[in-house]
Specification:
Layout (H helix, E strand, L loop, with lengths): L3 E8 H12 L3 E4 L6 H12 L6 E4 L3 H13 L4 E5 L1 H6 L1 H9 L5 E6 L13 H5 L6 E4 L3 H16 L7 E6 L7 E7 L1 H8 L27 H36 L7 E4 L6 E5 L4 H13 L4 E6 L1 E3 L3 H8 L4 E6 L10 H10 L8 E5 L9 H16 L10 E2 L9
Parallel strand pairs: 2-3, 2-4, 4-5, 5-7, 6-7, 10-11, 10-13, 13-14, 14-15
Antiparallel strand pairs: 1-8, 6-12, 9-11
Helix pairs in contact: 1-2, 1-7, 3-5, 7-9, 10-13
């Protein structure tokens, strides 16, 4: 049943703010930074006008933002924050501490390229830099998916088998400021979907029961090392348990609101495809348009959109990839040490256990807010098809840079 409250026209930042309002957090701590600023401004407006009953903390920087929220979460509060690019870098110390404390927090990352050169525009270098810090990483394609996923993130984070923080990622510029139609569910339906808060069943700050939080653990002795390993094993187990929980929560959302999203990997026109375009985030719409155009010319192309990036959905991705004979992987970030994109690295790793061997090409584009258009994806299709159909065609030894000058133009 679709419990629809209203339909609005808004950008991805406002959609995220509406979702936070509906999730009823107790504490919101924020520090504005481009392209996230309008998100927290909207939340501040909701609080000022009495529409969101939350403690709004305006602290001196992102390091303090997450440090303050850790204390609030340990005391039993449902929390929220959002940041971008250099703000995430400033937040790094408490950021890597949060999953080790098993705090079920939700934070939006409005993805932005990193410095230097100086840049305030969209890209995914910020989140890819922290992709293995222990946070669940989910990427959205549309403003509607942003709203729905931020709400779902609270149920995922607070699930007893998970108890880990969740980043809901949406691309700076394209989703943060891109306006579209968004359906907002009514408050009672969201309350019923989320249920009672389940934030601090595992640990709670209570002056009547003094306790140490995050004491020094480990060391050279065997007992200390074993305790440290146990923490790491538990965190890894929570990440893997999250795959089933994410799927379960998405299925419950679709039943409750009549609007579904792929939980782990979305398959688009893949069943009879020879070539698969692998995408993540807002670029996926242009990829789907390019696949449609290619099919009109008789070229069988599909799209594999990665929704959940951490934990990486190895089985779901391998199942999708098994339907095609070649892959073109498009990244909006760079893995410097491997001279390719980080999603490309994960694709290769996910294919290895399956034993599948096929041409897999790395493409990098959309850095610093540059467009990734249907024409760019047409080039991805052409090069991937050439690697598949021309037996003597050597695979590129380096990534193809889609927004570079000269011959790299589409």
């Amino acid at each position: 049943m679709n419990h629809l409250s209203r339909v609005v026209v808004c950008d991805g930042n406002e959609a995220a703010a509406w979702a936070v309002k509906l999730a009823r957090p107790d504490v919101v701590a924020v520090y504005p930074i481009t392209p996230q600023s309008s998100l927290v401004e909207t939340l501040a407006k909701f609080v000022a006008e009495g529409e969101l009953d939350a403690e709004l903390m305006t602290v001196e920087g992102e390091h303090s933002v997450l440090s303050a929220l850790q204390g609030a979460c340990l005391a039993g509060a449902r929390t929220y924050t959002a940041t971008s690019g250099p703000g995430l870098a400033f937040m790094f110390e408490p950021y890597v501490r949060t999953p080790g404390l098993r705090l079920p927090m939700v934070a939006s990352l409005v993805n932005r390229d990193m410095l230097s050169p100086q840049c305030v525009w969209g890209g995914q270098q910020d989140v890819m830099t922290v992709r293995d810090a222990g946070w669940i990483q989910i990427f959205c394609e549309s403003a509607q998916e942003v709203l729905d996923t931020v709400i779902m993130a609270y149920r995922i984070a607070e699930h007893p088998s998970v108890m880990l923080p969740v980043n809901v990622n949406h691309d700076g510029n394209y989703l943060s400021f891109g306006v579209s139609r968004v359906e907002i569910p009514d408050q009672p339906a969201v309350d019923a979907f989320l249920g009672e808060k389940n934030v601090n069943w595992h640990v709670a700050l209570d002056p009547e029961r003094p306790m140490a939080v995050d004491p020094l653990t480990g060391g050279a002795d065997a007992e200390g090392a074993a305790r440290f390993v146990a923490y790491r094993q538990s965190l890894c187990r929570g990440m893997q348990d999250a795959l089933a929980v994410i799927s379960e929560v998405h299925a419950d959302w679709a039943r409750a609101f009549g609007r579904g999203h792929a939980p782990l990997v979305e398959e688009y026109r893949l069943d009879d495809a020879e070539i698969g375009l692998v995408t993540i985030g807002s670029m996926s719409g242009a990829a789907k348009d390019a696949a449609d155009a290619a099919r009109a010319e008789g070229v069988r192309v599909g799209v594999i959109r990665i929704k959940t990036f951490r934990p990486f959905p190895i089985a779901a991705f391998a199942h999708a990839a098994a339907k095609v004979r070649a892959l073109g992987v498009v990244d909006r970030a760079v893995s410097y040490g491997w001279n390719c994109g980080p999603v490309y690295q994960d694709v290769l790793a996910a294919l290895y256990p399956s034993g599948r061997r096929m041409p897999v090409l790395s493409f990098i584009g959309g850095l610093a807010g540059a467009d990734l258009t249907e024409a760019h994806f047409a080039r991805v299709i052409a090069l991937t098809r050439a690697a598949l159909t021309e037996a003597q065609a050597p695979l590129p030894s380096a990534p193809v840079w889609l927004n570079a000058g000269g011959e790299e133009k589409p």
